[in-house]
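Could you join me in thinking about how sequence relates to backbone shape in a protein? Label the sequence line and the structure token line clearly, so we can match residues to local backbone shapes. Once you have written the record down, we can walk along the chain together.
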Amino acid sequence: MEKTTILDLQRMKDEGQKITMLTAYDYPTARILDSCGVDILLVGDSVGNVILGEANTLPVSVEAMIHHTKAVVKASESSLVVIDMPFMSYQISIEDAKRNAGRMMKETGVEAVKLEGGAGMEDTIRAITDIDIPVMAHIGLTPQSIHRMGGYRVQGKEDKQREKLLTDALSVERAGAFSVVLEAIPSKLGEEITKRLKIPTIGIGAGVRCDGQVLVINDLLGLSGEFRPKFVKKYVNLEEIISKSVKEYISEVRSEAFPGDEHSFH
């Protein structure tokens, strides 16, 4: 299969074909997702929460993102790979943002970067796209702003918030973003933004009318413990399957049922 490009994503929106995106943080997972035909693999700064055990995404470094993204890119033959720009890698200055975006693309081989923020990031997005680095925007609930938002709360319920998100969406499109993630906003607002924008919208808790959907792979597979936001669908409980297998292994080792004759050299 040929590599998915940002032009393919635009064509999918124009033709009404839904876009699929999942997070990936390592080679074996990315290999499976790529072989299944996922359109976009996002190496999210959610690696901090789901892989590194951090309380939120804020501690994640550029180096950590590069480390995990290299593995994902090696496994991706057809999926377009996007890397999250972590907290404080693009907020200090536009020059800093361009330098970090360029470094992350150059050292990993990704096709695009993603950053959080709406109208306030318009100039930054424009500057990065002006040096030919494709940018995916992210508005609504932005995890790097968790403290300002007072936690993981739905955004856009009030008229003032709704108008701000509409402004944010139009701003990132105007700045040159090739798509935008809409996180944790009312479904009607997700639909309205999707209709008003020419670029694809990728929803996560933003309703079925977005041009595509994204989930954290650990949530989809049931590897996130009791943590399950309203917008997550758990397609399988791998935690239960893994636990059962490991307990069976422990039992067989202690009873000397494993390794058996078929697992031993003679």
